[in-house]
Write a structure and sequence with these properties.
With 115 residues, this protein is mostly beta strands. It contains no helices and eight strands. A hairpin with a 4-residue loop joins strand 3 and strand 4.
Length: 115
C-alpha cells in the first residue's frame, strides 16, 4: 500500500426505495464499494433480523461490525436515488479505523478499531 493510503476517508450513501427497509424483515445487499487507489473495500448488508452487517477491508486488515439498522437515522440521498438512506463514513490512519453512520447531521461514530 502506498504512503498516500496510510490515512484517508471514504464516504457514501446506501439505502433502498422501501421506506421501511431499516425495520422490515427483508434482506438487502447494498453491494461492495471498492476504492482501489486507497486499498479500501466496504460491503454492507441488512439482515432479516434488522442487523446491518458491515465488512471492511482497509490497511491490510479485515474488520466486521454489526449494528441495528433501526438505531441509525435515515435521510434522503443527496443524489435522489432513495428517500430513506444512511450515510457511511470510514476514516483510517496507521493506528485506527473509525466507522460512522448517519442519515442527517451529525453522523455518529459506531465503532473504532485499533490496528
Amino acid at each position: 500500500m502506498s504512503d498516500s493510503s496510510e490515512e484517508g476517508t471514504v464516504t457514501f450513501w446506501f439505502g433502498d426505495e422501501d421506506h421501511d427497509w431499516t425495520s422490515n424483515q427483508n434482506s438487502y445487499d447494498f453491494g461492495e464499494l471498492e476504492q482501489y487507489d486507497a486499498g479500501v473495500k466496504v460491503w454492507i448488508v441488512k439482515n432479516p433480523d434488522g442487523q446491518l452487517g458491515i465488512d471492511v477491508g482497509v490497511h491490510g486488515h479485515s474488520l466486521r461490525h454489526e449494528e441495528s439498522a433501526k438505531s441509525g437515522p435515515t435521510g434522503p440521498d443527496p443524489q435522489g436515488r432513495f428517500t430513506h438512506g444512511m450515510c457511511f463514513s470510514l476514516v483510517w490512519n496507521p493506528k485506527s479505523v473509525m466507522l460512522h453512520l448517519g442519515g442527517r447531521d451529525p453522523m455518529r461514530r459506531v465503532a473504532t478499531f485499533q490496528i
